[in-house]
Amino acid sequence: MRPPRWFRIGCFALLPAGVLAAAEAVVLVANPENQTVPLVHYTGPAWPADAGGFLLGTGRGHRLLAAVLPGAGDFRVEAEFALARAGRDSSFVIGRDSEVVMTAGAKIWRLRGGFFNATEQPREIAAPAAAAGARLELELVRTGETAVLRIGGTELYRGRAGTAALGALGFDPGTGSVRLHRLAVAGKVAAAAAPKPFGNAFGMQLRRAPADAAALRAPVILRAAETNESSAVASRDGTLEIYGITKPASDSVSVIRSRDEGLAWSAPEIAFSLPGKAYYALMVLEAADGSLHAVVHLAGEGPGGYRGRLYEVYHLRRPPGGAWSAARKVIPGYVGSIRGFIQLGATGRLVLAVGLAVPERAAAPKAGPDFGWNDTVVYFSDDAGGAWQRSPDRLQVELATENVTRYGAVEPALVELGPGRIWMLVRDRGGRLWQSFSADGERWPALARTDFISSDSPASLLRLRDGRIVLLANACQNWTDPRSYAMGGREVLHAAISADAGRTWRGFRDILHETDVVSGGDRGTAYPSAVESRSGKIVVTSGQGEGKRALVGFDPAWLEERTVRDDLAAGPVGWTHYGAEAATVETLADGTRALALPLAAAGTAGAVWNFPMAAAGELRFRLRVPAAVHDLRVSLTDHFNRIDDRRAAEHAVWTAAGTTLTVPGDGAWHDVKLAWEAATAAGKLRVTIDGRAAATIPAQRAGLHGVNHLRFEFRAATDGDRVLIAGTEMSALP
Fold first, then answer.
1. Does 599 lie in the same domain as 490?
2. Contacts for 113-117: CB closer than 8 Å, 24+ residues apart
3. Which residue, 172, 176, 173, 179, is CA-closest to 88?
4. Is residue 246, in this structure, part of any structural domain at all?
5. d(C-alpha 453, C-alpha 704), whole Å
6. Predicted confidence (pLDDT) at residue 70 exceeds the cutoff of 90
7. Would you say residue 151 has pLDDT above 50?
8. Which residues lie closer than 8 Å to 46 by C-beta, 6 or more apart?
């Protein structure tokens, strides 16, 4: 067998981890059949070594990532690999947002992300001859600001690229399978930092938890959550409990406890065993009589589910001071995540809402409406879970957009607004949540679309002791790539609060930011469960994926704020820049702290600031723009977008750009005021620059509840400078 190029030119060597930072060339994967330890880490199961001389990667999101990365400047990456399955997509990953999507036997491959100047839409390239199982040699070279990609010596791409260090490098098997024989890098290489839990250099992760729960105000990370889709319970004695499926065994439920309102937690212990294997779906509540009730799904096989698979729901009960009962089946068939399980205050009725698979709708219909393969159904019990009845109503959502997934009406959340009024919110992939109301949990009218923005993610609802309602949702959208992960993303979890049973809302503020590390499989900030502590603070468990699950604490009064000012004293706590290079805080000669957004010759740069939702208000900030900046746009909108979403500005409520944003690119400071009115009625935005009226801008659409995100985005002719923003403050107006 012909050795690959790097062995022929003799410039690479396997090096021990202790000298990686000083190395100029490193072989990361070689001779795996001889048990050579690869210099990589994984976002899922480790890729096993095959006797055929390769590491075998399978499973979407189960990435192999280099433990050594090219730094800033010139580099070379070489790989020898095979795509084992024809017609299935796998990816070569470059940086945090870019990839080469490769398909054995296809005529077209796709380049995505900022590295390839393809943030707005994938760039299609002619695919090389790549039969399933055939070994391919890949070469990626960056020289100056030019990147060249070759397969088997054939140039597939040549274009401008940024000069910053890569944030990630490796392979994702996707829906296919990758056989990786060798992987090597050369240039100014350095050991990749191990992902640090909640180690973002921006956003709410920069806040530190206080020593006393009474000091909780803005959201802070209390600790990592044990597992996905955990369920929070506040006991009448003030103890907080978090229940979750015990991993990796999946045959029991574990619990952690806090007796100081969430600041310190016990080690996990087994709460009860299960008569089968669970995935993650679980909800636990404390009833009015002090007993605990749990519902959990267990895996099986057979008819009546989804393509031969079952996830049937079981109920368990623990009386005060007693032991957990045996699990009893409540719902046969296939039930995914469980998000709606409550007890009604007046009657004590248990109400359980789920998305239930409809076997005959496993495949999309050839004609007519498509309601996906799930309906929302409701079960209820009037004898503490001894017997359960099913509502005769099946709630459906017609799928109005295209996507690979077609779940239908799933993951309903429930809350009792008051006596005789139960509110349900249902997940959908169409950008909004859907709702229904019931007097008693038995009868439910058809679902109606709400004005709550959401990616394809579930909501969570919490009734506080004073009657206020807290809503948690992922109000995220991605207009450039509507079929992105979760149809809009899960980078941010938002919280809103209502003091009038859901008629009006305040807040819609960021309470959890996704840890900015590469991760595979389910990820992000979704699947929250919240409780109120004895002193009225809110504790939330949420997130999916290693290093991304968190317990968060905050004061609901923070959601009611109407005026905020960001002095950047704690860093860019209120800012996010997913999809762009990292922002930093600079202290200027006069002591002013400014947010510095680095210019990027490739792709879009910028940042987003979240503030309390307001239908009318004012924003003020100081802005310094270098001459190399062009296409500067400042938007006000009602949902979160990544910076690399190049269509976000056109979908904002207002966007100032060009003649309506006449901030000179002269490197000097300029004062900017944005004043808006009647956002919910498509009102006007008035722009003032250096005290002079610059423009009055009509709304592009009506805002849903108002606006709550300030977005800066721009492009630049070169790297090496930065846009500066200082003194950002916002006030809501009546």
1. no
2. 113/603, 113/644, 114/162, 114/579, 114/600, 114/602, 114/603, 114/604, 114/644, 115/147, 115/161, 115/162, 115/602, 116/147, 116/157, 116/159, 116/161, 117/159, 117/160, 117/161, 117/602, 117/603
3. 176
4. no
5. 8
6. no
7. yes
8. none
Q: Is residue 395 part of a domain?
A: no
CA dist 471 and 539 (Å) reads 13
What's the pLDDT at 475?
97
Contact 238, 533 (CB under 8 A): yes
For residues 554 and 536, give the distance between their C-alpha atoms in angstroms, rounded to a whole number: 9
Q: Which residue has the higher pLDDT, 350 or 174?
A: 350
**Residue-range definition of the domain harbouring residue 206:** 195-224+470-560
Q: Is residue 654 within 8 Å of residue 697, measured between CB atoms? A: yes
Contact 731, 562 (CB under 8 A): yes
Rounded to the nearest 10°, the torsion over CA 166, 225, 584, 712 is 90
258 or 1, which is more confident?
Answer: 258
Query: Which residue, 505, 531, 560, sits at the end of a domain?
Result: 560
Evaluate the omega torsion of the peptide bond into residue 248 and state whether it is cis, within 30 degrees of 0: yes
**Rounded to 5°, angle at Cα 518 from 515 and 523:** 65
Query: Residue 709: inside a domain, yes or no?
Result: yes
- Residue 17: per-residue pLDDT: 37
What average pLDDT does the chain have?
91
CATH number at residue 136: 2.60.120.200
Same domain as 60, residue 173: yes
Tokens, residue 463: 């009734």
Q: Give yes or no: residues 578 and 506 share one domain.
A: no
Show Cβ contacts of residue 669 under 8 Å, excluding neighbours closer than 6 positions: 622, 623, 624, 724, 726
Assess whether 199 and 182 both reside in one domain: no
Which tokens sit at 476? 């995220």
In a domain, 696, yes or no: yes
Rounded to whole angstroms, the Cα distance separating 677 from 618 reads 9
Range name among 168-172, 238-242, 247-251, 399-403 with the lowest pLDDT average: 399-403
Which residues have CB under 8 Å from 321's CB, separation 6+? Answer: none
Residues 6 or more apart from 136 whose CB is under 8 A from it?
80, 81, 82, 83, 128, 130, 151, 152
Task: Say how far apart CA 358 and CA 352 lie, in whole Å.
Answer: 18
CA distance 510 to 203: 9
Both structure tokens of 3? 């050795």
> Is there a single domain that holds both residue 124 and residue 202?
no
The string of pLDDT tens digits covering residues 468-516 is 999 999 999 999 887 788 888 999 999 999 999 999 999 999 999 998 7
Each as own residue / partner, the long-range contacts of residues 36-45 (CB below 8 Å, 24 or more positions apart, any chain) are 38/64, 38/183, 39/14, 39/66, 39/67, 39/68, 40/64, 40/65, 40/66, 40/67, 40/170, 40/183, 41/65, 41/67, 41/192, 41/194, 42/520, 43/518, 43/519, 43/520, 43/521, 43/546, 44/520, 44/521
Instruction: Indicate if 589 and 687 belong to the same structural domain.
Output: yes
Residues belonging to the chain: 734
Same domain for 577 and 682, yes or no, is yes
Cα dihedral sign, 696-702-705-707: negative
Q: What is the pLDDT of residue 15?
A: 37
Return the pLDDT at 440. Answer: 97
CA distance 658 to 572: 27
Closest listed residue to residue 605, CA positions, set 636, 571, 646 = 646
Tokens (6 digits) for 438: 């019931």
* For range 62-72, the mean pLDDT: 89
